[in-house]
């Protein structure tokens, strides 16, 4: 029996499908395929499916985590992209978390919360 998995993707909600696609593209994501209701969105080896689906309670409680090599560089890219002003989204400051992640949060146009961060090294005293 072969139970090997290939991939797992989240279906991310979009209140305004076109605006959400434009938001992710402005951040540097690619949209290699899209229909009227679904888009394949990727950055490097990571991806998700953006869907034309919006329930405020769902979108407002949906969270994605993107583990990157350099959260500081990503934060600078988000600022430089202009998405905060263009799409009216929220961006937090970078912070070192007790669970050894340096991250920041970013909301997308539908209210989905993204945590973008990198792992912090173990302290020599741990």
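^ structure tokens above, recovered residues below v
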């Amino acid at each position: 029996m072969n139970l090997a998995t290939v991939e797992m993707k989240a279906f991310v909600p979009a209140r305004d499908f076109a605006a959400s696609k434009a938001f992710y593209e402005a951040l540097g994501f690619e949209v290699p395929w899209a229909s009227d209701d679904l888009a394949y969105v990727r950055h490097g080896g990571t991806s998700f499916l953006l869907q034309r689906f919006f329930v405020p309670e769902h979108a407002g409680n949906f969270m994605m985590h993107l583990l990157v090599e350099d959260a500081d560089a990503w934060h600078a890219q988000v600022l430089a992209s202009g998405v905060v002003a263009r799409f009216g989204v929220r961006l937090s400051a970078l912070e070192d978390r007790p669970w050894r992640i340096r991250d920041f949060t970013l909301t997308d146009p539908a209210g989905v919360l993204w945590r973008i961060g990198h792992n912090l090294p173990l302290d020599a005293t741990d």
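The chain has one domain: 11-119.
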